[in-house]
Write a structure and sequence with these properties.
By secondary structure, the protein is α+β, with helices and mostly antiparallel strands. The protein is built from 12 helices and 4 strands, in the order H-H-E-H-H-E-H-E-H-E-H-H-H-H-H-H. The chain has 2 domains: about 190 residues, no CATH class; about 80 residues, Alpha-Beta Plaits (2-Layer Sandwich), CATH 3.30.70.3040. Belongs to the ABC-4 integral membrane protein family. FtsX subfamily.
Length: about 300
């Protein structure tokens, strides 16, 4: 097979169906950009989970004199020194517990002022209103229920809270956004496949005279089909390159420049460039192979060779 002939046929096909080729490139680029974005979002969520789950604590809040009036769990009164000592002793005996830190009401008030000092409500809070608590770090964050079961409802304990529950709400939101991106990606992928099939069909119909002559002179089926398949592959590859550019540009704009989330949201451990670069070969491979396979099946139906 002469490579020059195949390349010339690819150029002719792309020029004849320039509008549809452009539509294929755009739809492939958008669908693959969404695909890559969904992969990166999943990796971002996984990175954040690994980073934060290792840092979160289980908090055992103790009853104070204000809770004794308002909270049913503290109906027996504020926590006593004996109860605090017993809670600490029991915590240190648990195999799941790695470290135990006691936070006084004054320390809790100081942390509250650091975080919410600008809030109008901050001036109405006094140290005696803050709760003493034990901050418990577990060797495995998944073992939260062991601590919760052992201390929830105990005399002197107002509540047991797992900080993971707060993070899980954020992760659920991010996973929801990821699912939306996947659904849109699937829709764009279907549209791209339909456009590819139609483009190949129109291209084959417009060159039916040439393909008829090639059949008469004994050209093989693959020799006739190759230009159409490669046209689709080239269009898909261009779309894949554009998708890679979108992923690189999106990562730079959102994290490093433009919005500069990396500088504004210091509490989030963002994925690095290596995570993006490792996804690009997969995006390019799908961009190249998906249109080629779609064209191959389209030709079996619309181009009888």
């Amino acid at each position: 097979m002469r490579a020059q002939f195949v390349l010339s046929e690819i150029g002719v096909g792309l020029r004849r169906n320039l509008t549809m080729t452009f539509a294929v490139v755009v739809s492939v680029a958008l669908s693959l950009a969404l695909f890559g974005g969904a992969l990166l979002m999943r990796e971002q969520v996984s990175t954040m989970k690994d980073y934060w789950y290792d840092k979160v604590n289980v908090s055992i809040f103790l009853c104070n004199k204000n809770d004794a009036k308002d909270a049913p769990e503290c109906a027996k009164g504020a926590v006593t020194k004996e109860q605090k000592d017993q809670i600490k002793t029991d915590l240190e005996k648990m195999e799941a517990v790695e470290t135990v830190h006691f936070e006084t009401a004054d320390e809790a008030y100081k942390h509250y002022q650091e975080q919410f000092g600008d809030s109008p409500m901050a001036g109405n809070i006094t140290p005696d209103q803050m709760q003493e608590s034990y901050r418990v770090k577990l060797d495995d964050p998944q073992k939260y229920k062991v601590v919760a079961t052992a201390f929830a409802g105990r005399d002197g304990v107002q509540s047991v809270q797992d900080q993971r529950s707060i993070l899980d709400q954020l992760f659920e939101l991010m996973n929801g956004m990821n699912l939306v991106a996947i659904y849109v990606m699937i829709l764009m992928l279907v549209i791209a496949l339909i456009l590819i099939v139609n483009t190949v069909r129109v291209s084959a119909f417009s060159r039916r005279r040439e393909t008829g002559i090639m059949r008469l002179v004994g050209a093989s089926g693959f020799y006739i089909q190759a230009p159409f398949i490669m046209e689709a592959a080239v269009a898909g590859l261009i779309g894949g390159v554009l998708a890679c550019g979108m992923l690189l540009g999106g990562r730079y704009f959102l994290i490093d420049g433009g919005l500069a989330l990396q500088d504004k949201l210091l509490v989030i451990n963002f994925i690095g460039w290596d995570a993006v670069l490792t996804k690009l070969p997969l995006v390019l491979a799908i961009g190249l192979l998906m249109p080629a396979v779609a064209a191959l099946f389209a030709l079996r139906k619309y181009l009888k060779v």
